[in-house]
């Protein structure tokens, strides 16, 4: 199983119809994991260039103040993750490149426990993603150039005691496998 929603068996000779993934208005049909917010970015363009808004507390996307920010880069076709936080929420902004963010809800008592979300973003589809604590996440660069994202977590990084817990990418605890080859 590569993706949680793909059920095509390799041996079948009959074509399988795609399932609906968006409405005619472009709204995704799969439910989001509880607490996950995807806020599309606004890019202002004029003859001089462009300005893209990353985060504004006035949006109401997250109540915690901004306390820390960092930029991360992923090489083409590489994956970072699985990680989970117990004390902080991540507020990740996809800035440059093409990404596949995969989220897995492992939170006891969550109405979406066990759910997996794939979120594809890139420089032509920028967005801020709120990832609540307790939600495992991994990010893959699905493009051909280095990809950059900015994280505005709700806690500053504690070098002596990091709030970052990892699982291997091929763990059986998460029902998702990253594809060996892209473009299927």
Question: What does this 3D model show about the protein?
Answer:
The chain has 184 residues and is mostly beta strands. It has a domain at 37-55 and 67-166: Sandwich (Jelly Rolls). The chain is built from no helices and twelve strands. It has strands spanning 37-40, 43-46, 49-52, 70-74, 79-84, 90-96, 98-105, 116-122, 127-131, 135-141, 147-151, 165-166. Strands 1-9-6-11-4 form a five-stranded antiparallel beta sheet, with no helix packed on it. The radius of gyration is 17 Å and the shape is globular.
CATH architecture of the domain at 37-55 and 67-166: Sandwich
Roughly what fraction of the amino acids lie in strands? Answer: 25-35%
Based on CA inertia axes, which overall geometry fits? globular
CATH-defined topology of the domain at 37-55 and 67-166: Jelly Rolls
Total DSSP E strands = 12
Query: Class of the domain at 37-55 and 67-166, according to the CATH hierarchy?
Result: Mainly Beta
Q: Which H/E pattern describes the elements?
A: EEEEEEEEEEEE
- In helices, the fraction of residues equals under 10%
CATH superfamily of the domain at 37-55 and 67-166: Jelly Rolls
Q: In DSSP terms, counting alpha (H) and pi (I) runs of 4 or more, how many helices?
A: 0
What is the distance, rounded to the nearest whole angstrom, between the alpha carbons of the first and last residues?
A: 13 Å
Catalogue the unreliable spans.
5-9
| Main beta-sheet strand count, sense and barrel state | 5 strands, antiparallel
Q: Determine Rg (CA atoms, Å).
A: 17 Å
The average pLDDT value, as a whole number, equals: 90
